[in-house]
C-alpha cells in the first residue's frame, strides 16, 4: 500500500514545483467564473423568466461547478495513459510489482488533492468578491454532496482512463479527441448550465449518463433540489457506472496489450 501512497505524494510534489501553473490555473478558473456570473446576472436583471433557479441558486450553482471542475475534469488519467502507450513506456510500468491502473489512479488522486487545495479553495474565497455562496440545504445535504463527489472521482477516473486506452488503436498526437471529449463532458454533465435547462428528451438521456454524476448530481443535493429517493438512485448509478466502466476498461486493456505484444514482439 505504501508504494501506491508514494504515487500520491510524488504527483503532489511534482505539481507544487510549478508555481506559475498554480497561479495560471486559479486565474483561468476565476476569469471563467467571473464571466459566467456576469452573464447570469445580466440575464436575470433583464427580466428573463427563469423558473428553475433563483438568482442566488444559479450563482451558487456556477461557483460550485467551477470549484468541482478545477479538480474533477483534469485529463491526467487520459494524458498519462496516452503518453505511456504512445512512447512505449507502459511496458516498463507493467514490469513493476503493482497494478498499472492503480499507479495511474493514485497519481491522478494526488493531482485532484493538489487542485482542490490550491485552486478550488482559493476559488471559493475569491468568489465572495462577486457573491456569497448559499449554505447547503441541510447538514445531511452537505454530507451527501461530499460523498457524491468522492464517488464521482471514481466515475470520472474510469471515464478518462477509458479515453486514454483508445491510444492502443488511435494515436492522438495533438489531443484533439481528448479536448473534444472534455468539452462534451462539460456540456452533458451540467458543468456549464444546469441540466434542467435541457430539452426534455435530452434531459432524460443525460440523467442516466455518467457525466451528470460529477456536477449536476452533487450540486443538486447541496441545494436541496432532490429528495432521498433521487439521491439514493444517484448513488446507485455512480456505483453501477464505476462497475460498468471498470469492466469495459479491463476488456480494452487486455485487448490493447495483445495488440501491443503483436506489434512489439
From TrEMBL:
The chain crosses the membrane at residues 20-39, 59-81, 102-130, 142-170, 177-202, 222-248. Coiled coil: none annotated. InterPro entries: ABC-2_transporter-like (IPR010390). It comes from the Bacteria. It holds the Pfam family ABC2_membrane_6. PANTHER family: SLR1174 PROTEIN, SLR1174 PROTEIN-RELATED. The keyword Transmembrane applies. The keyword Membrane applies. This is ABC transporter permease. Keywords: Membrane, Transmembrane, Transmembrane helix.
